[in-house]
Request: fold
Amino acid sequence: MTDEPVHVIRKLEQALRDDDFAWSLMLVGEDQTDKLATLTGDLRGPHSETGDGKQITSGFSYWGIGPTIAWANATNDPFYLVMKAGAESFLRHWRKVRPHTDKTGFHFVSLGVGTGVKDRTILADMYRKNRDMFYIPVDMSSEMLRMGTLEPVRGLGFPMSQVLPVQLDFSIADNMGELGQMLARLVGDEPILFTLTGNTLANFESDLELLGTITRVLRPQDRLLLEVASTSSLDQTAADAAADEYQQTRAFAEFVTSALRYNTDLRIEDGLIDYRGEVETNDALLVKIVWQNNTSESMTMGLPDHTEVTLKPNDTILLYTTRKFSTERLKKLTAECGLTAIEHAHSGFRYTRRPSPFGLDLLLLAPEGAEVPNLLAEDIWSQ
Ligand SMILES: C[S@@+](CC[C@H](N)C(=O)[O-])C[C@H]1O[C@@H](n2cnc3c(N)ncnc32)[C@H](O)[C@@H]1O
Reply:
């Protein structure tokens, strides 16, 4: 016996090391009953025919085991062409961006892991440069965290003692503030690469607010890797095509309705899901996916707290929001948050017979106060 306290984490690490059972450690940042109360409250919103009343906001569409499985199925659906194109372009884009993260050993904080496929690529490269790095995936869904981190960690033999999954809603400013403080205590002044990939920024009602919330946590030595869907066209035809893209796969429809299926007793029928595309403030395409009662009868929906809500004819529930950003919108967003683009990679979609205005962009961003190489801003954005 020594007088040195043996920390529970160190003891746990030893206890779990030789066990074949698939344990995973996780830091839970929020009371999950509060989350359920928030979701229930959001589903009790006022009558609206435009998706502006009852809603399922960002992280809730992925929250829980049902939506997690549905998301994994959607990303693997061979008919979800955009997802496939995205996986391919990510590899190319990351190779272009990677040299800017090579010189310094970064820690890696992944905001929204999903299936973990992209994290695996990033982690493999970063681990080669910095054997002492921490990998900190952050997600609102504990099931997504468990599924999404097994892929990058197991496959690479990355030490479990350097993985710290965090269950947290990162759209809440206080949560991000607490996360930032905890990270600073964990890694000191060492730099962190934060990632927000898979067009996750587009799922939030206010993309500016989310980007601002994340940016406030970045220290000058940190970087943010941002992946977004983009468009070079901003008319109603393009908005309709953007909505169409999501309508084409059965697996995506299963995913987008799964939060409703698992948290309410509403019977979901295909005809009641509407994919609506519009041009937003003349610099982005906005797609709202809504459930709508387009029958002539009122319906009732049972909520998790055993109350019921009446859905009158034409009432809607907003299930999912997504966007395609123009370069102008991206410039405006990053400028308002004080972010500088260090590298930018862009690919257009080529799987359609006719030329498509849609593509994917990967941006490596530095916060205010960062020492960045002399960059010609317009050159970066024109790539
Ligand atoms: C569109 S997926 C992207 C997954 C992955 N990064 C990729 O590039 O494929 C969004 C991910 O972010 C998580 N997420 C969405 N909103 C969130 C929130 N407010 N807080 C925490 N996680 C959230 C979801 O659970 C999901 O894992």
About this structure: DSSP finds twelve helices and 14 strands in the chain.
